[in-house]
Specification:
heterooctamer; A alpha/beta (363); B alpha/beta (254); C alpha/beta (181); D alpha+beta (70); A: alpha/beta; 7-stranded mixed β-sheet; 5-stranded mixed β-sheet; 13 helices; D: 2 helices; 4 strands; 26% strand; globular; binds thiamine diphosphate; binds iron/sulfur cluster; binds magnesium ion
Chain lengths: 363, 254, 181, 70, 363, 254, 70, 181
């Protein structure tokens, strides 16, 4: 299919349909309402389901109910709405149902603002809800990548029977960029008869299925948690995705940055190169699982003096960078939030002053 | 001319965990009998509450989902929207449905979702040890109204069936009881009617059932059924409150 | 090579649309493009602006403090953005609503009374297309025939408006040329 | 036609609801506990039973079943 | 006041009253319902407010409203209930209102079980809600400590104008232990007239107060986030609390463990000592701020070969241990969840096998 | 015999951000006038919604709190329980109050919380760009009902005032409009009455106000007020629906 | 008694509601925009004004005020 | 030195209360104590048990797999816990409901028909106090007079029950001594 110019939110809606997701439940919230406004028109064309729920809490359980009976489902929201979904997200992971959540982040905390932000990193990656669980979290840096990640998300969430979140900032949702849509996925969800509560007749079985999360016996519940942990460990082994940039140079500093913020960093790195200063970047495409090893190895490179986490939040991701660098190099944070997007110039200055000070320390 | 009586097929043989004399068990059996009679066991999905009936999935022989506290109507909506051919019911207590789940039940009913709700009104939070529910009677003592429900402080009990009947969307809404055989027989008919409306994709259907909680009422079984009959029934009158046939989906009563 | 165009004016002046058509044309011409609106809560009557980034390499930062060009549809936007335009850029001023100049000698400033032209064409609504065409012709940032095609595609659903907007393109183009003499 | 009236002693919780609703006063609570520690019911006066199933209808635990025996 | 034998949940309720908190809003949930069942009787005796809200979402905003008009308020809940409060918690931190949240954790994810667990570490410490914020999080290991932490919590939450969470497991709530109650705090909440919406007449002022979290201007919102960050940095400087155990021995292994889990570890350490194996422990009393330095320094000790995070969750806290140890020593995790509480024997074996394997590695 | 007209003291001098002809501004002014007349500015705390009125705190000169979407009634409950002497009102749109906030409004009303709610019914989500609200009329087009509200799919509009009136707890519940001067004069009287009930700690008071949204209705100002009068008012009849005086707190109407 | 009828031109959004409700048809929308880009109202026929405040009551923006002048 | 006592029986046998009184008495005697109930959702009629830990140092782990002593009020609890009692501990068996022994020779097993004694005293309800007193007397874990005081304090609100429970203590104590001969 040819190239089209499309707004991120609408492209995400279209990508879902092409991934065979014909069921969408959501509650409006800026800056992602266009996802629903697009799908309310598209779904009837494909005999799909569109429903505006009465609240994010309700929507999150509509998703659970629909996913639990085997449907391919998606919702989209933004930060406060995701907070309200956190109980259900915990339930859905424990009930091992596949589902896709889109979070087009706005600025917090509280009502905050609606401009681009990455302040929901911890909520998405560490678990906003209660209990030991993880979402698989993808962070697109362009509309094209958002489309590809949405289309990957469904089969992956079904493979692991775990919800997947696409974590984008407001720019991803509001920006128009050229998009080429991959071919449709085969629309039949992978066989779910082994667990989905889709009615015994549907699966021509007289064994009933159960989707539940209550396990009163501690031995069973511990085993269940170990089973979930095994899935997360497998994701860490198999699903890590990241993009290295300028990593074969003899870089003096390593930037770790994701989403649209990483595009600003890329520009900064290009400009620094012209100024004769080599800087590299690891751009996590999956925030969970996080590219621990890639970052640690990149940080270990001889030439690299310092690691800088650059994010539109107050160092949430940088904490993970610190963890995986294991003290091999000093780890620093640079960022802004509240809708202020650091410019390439600001990132360049942050890197330079950092290198100066670290040079000072050496003297 | 005796009659026979057997455990319905839709009911599992597992003994329930309810306290002696708790009528949750009666309601379970009635649902199972109706599902057998309608022959829909193979395409039914039940949705359990968080409450004493949290283990309800153990007592039936068809697909079941377990909801979070109060959210069963949202889950049922999710199922019916993607699989209208499935027969779906939610089973919810009065804390679950009328307190934390008020928003979900009102909107599901108002959208006219084509599922059935069995609403177990026992005027108390059973599972968590007897706290006050929205349905707790004036002056009734509970662990969070130790001196009796003070209506000047926390308001009157909520008549959920009448509240839902005030919505404009057509629905079948009825109140029944399972505290004595004569009520049980009627209750079963009402539950069957509710499922029939769903099978016909006619409307949302809601059956409130007055039930007992001897344990948290601090009464014997017999005291419980009598208290329910003498105190609850006058405040929560039995019978059909709204049906989709009634003019402009308005209420029958009044 | 990358250039950025800032479209700015009142809400309701069709800013986002003309920016979108430019981005579309540039894309069709084989460039990398990004269209970045100013979005905010529904506070009506405020200033609306939209940045179009056009480049031959994948576009990095979409946060541009100094655009190459400016299309200023009202006075506040001219005052706000004229000072930050890169030197050598084009600044198109809507002469119908703006009585002042940008006060810079290092840019290619030119004034087009787009509202008046649009009214002359029979509908004020076409002012944004007049401005777009004028700017495109002046800056030569995209091929004008491609632009025409993209205008047609944009209005495909409201076909009756196409002739009007074709004329708007012509007039805008003329206005730009005129200035050349 | 003959009927087989069965009380599943270990399902019975001795709540006494059936005793109260039996129109023929057939049922009574037994003296010794079942496995669960409850005192179950039994048909004290089986002869009086008219097989009306009222007790079955009332029982929350499906502890009473009645089958035909040809 | 003399020693009394009291259940944790009830002691927490009494401690709140003695801290001058006369306003309690909550929704029942096991295993903490006794807090409310105690306070519903106690509050009338002190002309205090008890209200059972209709849901945790509603309760969390009752807390916000009451706190915002200057009242000293508390709520208590358990894991799923806290998830439902996460939007409000984000609002309250952004609105800079003091309030105390009790989370007597149960096992997740989902409905899970009600036995002791520590699976809400990430939710409480990293932020279950959206945006850049932190709760100050205290983790009591005994009923006595729970009482003391509750009584500290109110003045601290007022000092920082930030909510404080007491994070206890089911044992803390359900166990009876001897308690000695500290004297009452002066019941007047610290002066809040500079910000509280308590009515202009109340503060004899004609300047009105505003409690809000919307900041549409990104510069302002970034500044607001920096202001919050400054508070969290100050907490990290001033409020870190931890208990070292057997740290002056030449320990071969360092355990990091909190809450009742740490009591099991203490027993294990005592028994290992008898067996001639020295092991030390750092017990974080504050989970945020986390005792980074104390742990890093303890890990750096010559004799220490390995660091072991022991928790009733799948390694949530151990991630933070890993972060602050900075690769100085290998960091491992041992734990169970779902209500299975590791026994001293199990902890002992975990430590031993760990030391063996690390010895192996050395050969 | 002319009259004078001045900006009330309780209203700030800051121009509002609402669209031309949006009647949110009229409602703001009426509240301010009532607060001035009752002389309670110094002990009033307003609670704003998330909706087009999210910046409401800029337009008044007394203490204000900003709620999360739909939760204003819970915040008001928090304030009134700890400071019954403060005069508290919530200002909420129909998405805020009738959709996400349904549970909170029903329970606050049912507890008989002694605060006042101003409920702005403009049949649409204004702030977020015109999505369907629970109050959206049958067949009304919105961005999430582009072919018109299909009542068979999403149910009938919710008559919030009537729904709250179905609760048993005494309350003052009225519906007004601000689309033309004659309605505005009545609306002000009703708002004053609502605050007076609160001052007397008599009951919960609720004023639904039919308002316009020219922008999302896609109409001119005049079209808007006329559409509101011709389409909304017949479905949402004006007048007092329930008052604490009426027998057993029941409804006046019907 | 004389009155001072004031229209705050820059508050006015030109919505026209006051024009429509004025019983004496006093008001009209002006031809030139104000600072916000709106076309404000003005009293086209001030002589006809009966100072009834109907326009003030209708105005969502409190753009019209009427004061006494002694 | 630390010792742990497991009280176990049916729900409704007053297990938690007798455990609490023992903990209280031990506290008054100057020991460190912890009372750890088995808590679960309201599944009635199940087994209830409660652990009391008494020590002279701050109590570490409250998770005890092998208690020192056992007070078994019904058969399931005896079967469940008898095997895990530390050797040298006391196992008190409620002879009224339990017809078997614990089958261990390394513990001090003794049988008291607590229900029958309680019924003899006029109320089955006092069975748990009979058991408590019997166990305390036998194990000498706390001072009996202190225990008496704590029983009084516990029933302060229902003063009319105090005489009954005092007699229950006496009888329990006698039963324990009796066994000593
Ligand atoms: C979010 C959440 N809040 C609270 C609880 C605790 N809880 C479990 S059941 C229940 C109330 C049960 O009462 P009801 O719904 O009336 O059912 P019943 O037990 O009376 O049949 C509560 C408050 C929970 N599990 N989840
Ligand atoms: C939790 C949450 N969900 C959704 C939103 C997005 N949102 C803001 S306002 C609004 C609806 C506003 O409509 P209404 O309440 O009718 O007020 P109006 O703008 O029409 O006056 C929505 C959905 C939000 N801010 N927070
Ligand atoms: S607590 Fe009440 S509702 Fe629950 S099982 Fe027992 S009697 Fe039934
Ligand atoms: S069948 Fe009828 S008569 Fe026989 S025992 Fe049951 S209730 Fe009594
Ligand atoms: S009703 Fe059922 S459970 Fe109750 S006593 Fe009769 S048989 Fe037993
Ligand atoms: S969008 Fe509608 S409600 Fe919002 S300000 Fe504009 S007209 Fe008023
Ligand atoms: S009503 Fe007010 S805002 Fe509208 S035109 Fe008249 S004066 Fe201007
Ligand atoms: S005061 Fe009355 S007459 Fe004068 S302009 Fe206003 S509405 Fe017209
Ligand atoms: Mg109940
Ligand atoms: Mg609205």
């Amino acid at each position: 299919m040819s190239k089209v110019l499309m707004k991120g939110n609408e492209a995400i809606g279209e990508a879902a349909i092409r991934a065979g997701c014909l069921n969408y439940f959501a509650y409006p919230i800026t800056p992602q309402s266009e996802v629903g406004e697009y799908l309310v028109r598209r779904m009837p064309e494909v005999n799909g389901v569109f429903l505006q729920g009465e609240s994010e809490v309700a929507v999150s359980y509509m998703i659970f109910g629909a996913a639990a009976c085997g449907a391919r489902v998606m919702t989209s929201s933004s930060s406060p709405g995701i907070s309200l979904m956190s109980e259900a997200i915990s339930y859905i992971t424990s009930g091992e149902c596949p589902a896709v959540f889109i979070n087009i982040m706005r600025c917090g905390p509280g009502l905050g603002g609606i401009l681009p932000s990455q302040a929901d990193y911890s909520q998405s990656v560490k678990g906003g809800g209660h209990g030991d669980y993880h979402l698989m979290v993808y962070a697109p840096a362009s509309v094209q990548e958002a489309v590809e990640m949405v289309m990957m998300a469904f089969p992956l969430s079904e493979k692991y029977r775990n919800p997947v979140m696409i974590l984008g900032d407001g720019l991803i949702g509001q920006m128009m960029e050229p998009v080429v849509f991959p071919d449709h996925l085969k629309t039949e969800p992978s066989n779910k008869d082994s667990w989905a509560t889709n009615g015994m007749d549907t699966r021509k079985s007289n064994v009933r299925n159960l989707v539940k999360t209550l396990l009163l016996d501690p031995v069973q519940l511990n085993a269940h948690n170990l089973k979930l942990k095994a899935k997360y460990d497998l994701m860490k082994k198999e699903e890590v995705r990241f993009e290295p940039y300028n990593t074969d140079s003899d870089y003096k500093a390593l930037i770790v940055s994701y989403g649209t913020m990483s595009r600003v960093c890329r520009t900064a790195i290009d400009d620094l190169k012209e100024q004769g200063l080599e800087v590299a970047m690891i751009r996590p495409q999956t925030l969970f699982p996080f590219p621990d090893t890639a970052i640690r190895e990149a940080a270990s490179k001889e030439s690299c003096q310092v690691v800088l986490g650059v994010e539109m939040s107050m160092g949430q991701m940088t904490e993970d960078v610190e963890r995986c660098v294991r003290g091999k190099k000093p780890v620093e944070w640079y960022g802004k939030c509240g809708g202020e997007v650091p410019t390439p110039e600001e990132v360049m200055n942050a890197v330079k002053s950092l290198l100066q000070s670290s040079r000072k320390e050496q003297n | 001319m005796g009659k026979t009586f057997l455990k319905p097929e839709a009911l599992s043989s597992q003994p329930n965990h309810y306290c002696p004399g708790c009528t949750h068990g009666v309601i379970h059996r009635l649902i199972a009998e109706v599902i057998d009679e309608l022959g829909i066991r193979g395409r039914t999905v039940g949705i359990g509450p968080v409450g004493c009936a949290v283990l309800i999935y153990n007592y039936f022989t068809f697909d079941f989902q377990e909801a979070a506290h109060g959210r069963a109507p949202a889950m049922a909506t999710g199922i019916k929207r993607v699989r209208p051919d499935l027969m779906v019911f939610t089973y919810q207590g009065d804390g679950d449905l009328a307190s934390i789940g008020m928003g979900e039940i009102i909107h599901a009913a108002n959208r006219g979702e084509k599922f059935t709700t069995i609403f177990v009104n026992n005027a108390v939070y059973g599972m968590t040890g007897g706290q006050m529910a929205p349905t707790t009677m004036p002056n009734q003592r509970t662990t969070t109204s130790p001196y009796g429900r003070d209506v000047l402080d926390v308001g009157m009990p909520i008549k959920v069936a009448e509240l839902l009947a005030a919505l404009q969307t057509p629905a079948f809404i009825t109140r029944q009881a399972v505290i004595k055989p004569k009520y049980i027989v009627k209750a079963k008919k009402a539950i069957k009617k509710a499922f029939e409306y769903q099978m016909a994709a006619k409307c949302y259907s809601f059956v409130e059932v007055i039930s007992t909680c001897p344990t948290n009422w601090g009464m014997t079984t017999m005291e419980s059924v009598n208290w329910a009959e003498e105190v609850l029934l006058p405040f929560y009158p039995l019978g059909d409150i709204k049906s989709p046939e009634s003019v402009d989906g308005g209420t029958d009563a009044k | 090579m990358q250039s950025e165009v800032m479209f700015a004016g009142f809400g309701g002046q069709g800013i986002l649309l003309s920016a979108k058509i430019l981005a579309h044309a540039a894309m069709e011409q084989g460039f990398e493009v990004a269209w970045i609106p100013s979005y905010g809560p529904e506070m009506r009557g405020g200033t609306a602006y939209c940045m179009v980034v056009i480049g031959d390499r994948p576009i990095g930062s979409t946060i541009i403090k100094n655009p190459k060009h400016l299309v200023a549809m009202n006075r506040p936007s001219l005052e706000k953005f004229a000072p930050v335009v890169k030197s050598g850029g084009v600044i198109m001023i809507n002469g119908s609503l703006i009585t002042i100049g940008c006060g810079r000698s290092d840019v290619d400033e030119f004034i087009v009374p787009v509202n008046d032209i649009a009214i002359g064409l029979g509908s004020i609504k076409s002012a944004n297309i007049v401005a777009l065409a004028a700017f495109a012709a002046r800056s030569k940032i995209v091929d004008l025939d491609l632009l025409r095609e993209c205008v047609k595609i944009e209005f495909a659903s409201k076909a009756n408006l196409i002739p009007l907007n074709m004329r708007a393109v012509d007039e805008g183009q003329k206005a730009a040329m005129a200035k050349d003499k | 036609m003959a009927y087989n009236y069965q009380i599943d002693v270990d399902r019975c919780k001795g709540c006494g609801l059936c005793v109260a609703v039996c129109p023929k006063n057939v049922l009574e609570i037994a003296g010794e506990v079942n496995v669960k520690g409850y005192f179950p019911v039994y048909q004290a006066r089986p002869a009086d039973c008219v097989v009306c199933t009222t007790c079955c209808i009332m029982c929350p635990d499906v502890a009473i079943t009645i089958t035909e025996i040809s």
